[in-house]
Amino acid sequence: MTGKIILRTAIFFFCLVFLSLQIRAADFDAALSFPKRTENKVFRSRVNAHWLPDGKTFWYRLQTGPKSYEYVLINAENGKRQTAAELKALGITSPEAKTSVMKIELRRTKFSGESSGFKFINQLGEDVDLFWINQEGEHIRYGGIRAGSEREQHSIEGHVWLITSLTGEPLAVVEAEATVKTLIIDGKGLKKAEEEPKKPQMSGKSPDGSCTVTCEADAVPRRNVTIVESSPKEGLQPKTMVIDYIKPGDPLPKPQLVIKQADGQKIRVLRDLYENPFNTEGRIDVTWSPDSSEFYFDYNQRGHELYRILAANAKTGAVRVVVEETSKTFIHYSGKSWRHWLHSSGELIWMSERDGWCHLWLYDVKTGKPKHQITKGAWPVREVLRVDEATREIWFMASGLKASEDPYHEHLCRIKMDGSDFLQLTAGDGNHRVEFSPKRDFFIDTWSRADHPPVSELRRSSDGSLVGVLEKADASALLAAGCTMPERFVAKGRDGKTDIHGVIITPSNLDPAKKYPIVEDIYAGPHGAFAPKDFDRQVRMHQIAELGFIVVKMDGMGTNHRGKAFHDVCWKNLKDAGFPDRKLWIKEAAKTRPWMDLNRIGIYGGSAGGQNAMRALLDHHDFYKVAVADCGCHDNRMDKIWWNEQWMGWPIDESYKLSSNAEDAAKLQGHLLLIVGELDTNVDPASTTQVVGALQKAGKTFDFIPIIGAGHGAAETPYGSKLRMEFLVRHLMP
Fold this sequence. Notes:
The chain is an alpha+beta fold.
């Protein structure tokens, strides 16, 4: 009898194991198939307007199904809509329009390689728009390139980009290569710029030709980082690659401006007000006043607690302050130092966070005094789109305008330079992207939310009034394919009063009677905010959810766009990463979602998110049990100078050591997987291998996988992604 019981028990457990393996395999199939089975499932989502010469009529090509399209003609003055079939019945055709669209629709992103990018030089006399054409052929707008200006754009090898006129006319399509390319926009397509010469010492010539300004700087040692390519494609033996890579604390050049008069006389511009600049190139760009009496230049003091716009007298070299910003923490120079010169009136529009929020101020250039604050309120200006000097109006994007909406959602606004007549021009409860008609008297407003497909509306620029709804995206096929809609969730942060916003993503086969482990997708880089605000498939998070996880993503304190006090939490404190807010948020969500298992919580992230993910197991292992850290900047002394000194300050002090994962390696508890690409040129791969060494020295058990031939973001390669999924399943679903 005992033997039979043992046999039956063994058979029972074997069946359980066999069944669990079948379920696990089904989950992996669902996760791996998610990208393919959910692609090309959202329709009527994109209005790419092509305006006709009258400026009052436009057409667009609309995707209505997996392989079906229709052409729509819109009269902007009255909103009248006509389809291609209706136009044909009237005897109206537009073959040239169809041809121009098809030329750009045929090309799309087909593969992703290494980190790369472009430098675009717009030689046209008008602004142009820049779009990424994704794998589904959708055009994702990435802003514009102003007339006569340059723009650097990060990309990935193999990604396809489209450049159009502001009226939607295709100008060029280009595919990113393995190396960064400089391309010229001249109206004849794109052409590669000649090999760029070394940056000249010339900093600016006077409009009247009376003098020029040059820049002198003593040479300083430049740090190089050597990358080893273990398995090159073209041969057996490893190769080395040496890259210029300045790190926090490294010496920087201190440029000296020199005025060269027409008669050959040289005047050294006094350095009292710009003696210790954060300047990696040893040059200073200048802007001249129209009358050539003085020129203006920036001084970003190293440590980022002082920022000035200075004016230098062209005849004497005397320097005065036009604008001065100070901060007890940091001035976000890399994201909030926009300005616009109004030379005709002797004024300057300047962006500042001096009142705690990112706003615009009007300055008198001659006196160096602010005339008044233009925008005000407990909300930030996010981007200035246009300054109309004739009407003295400013068009800009802002967020946090209504307490009832997500504070990250951007809206189009307009205001007079004297601060009057503020008007919010967009209305839908979502994140807004706008495109203007050629005469700017109309704009197409496309808005969406993480949980709401795009809506495209035609509005009048004069007052934002609605002409008509153009399209409402149809995502029913996406949901039918097993993509769950993200749930937006809000909970109070560490102070008990500040709202923390994020999303919750569930598996398509969620059973409310079961318990599911939680996995957080983290990126706490202070330069931005990262919980999704636009409607998107969110492929990576959904893939992990399909394995049987509840995936969450939120923006804790220390990230951007919520005011200076919220942002300042990161200062000299990157290890904080908003964890006190994140843990409270997850706990609060679980109170009304009993299927969220607070005893099984994992976390993953890359780059700054890799640093964050490992930190979870150093300081918060009472909460997080498993972490996957990809290409992490684990020690801010090891990473690039501009990003790390921006938040951690200068000189290098104890705060760098206190935020170092390598220094705290002995505190590790839980299951950790470290991933790094051996060819990472963004974050020095030694940042990860030094952590490996520290963990070994501390006798810790962990997993380490270098991805051969991969660059930054190695966990997003097929192999890296597979490793991450397997690791999370192995340790959160034993």
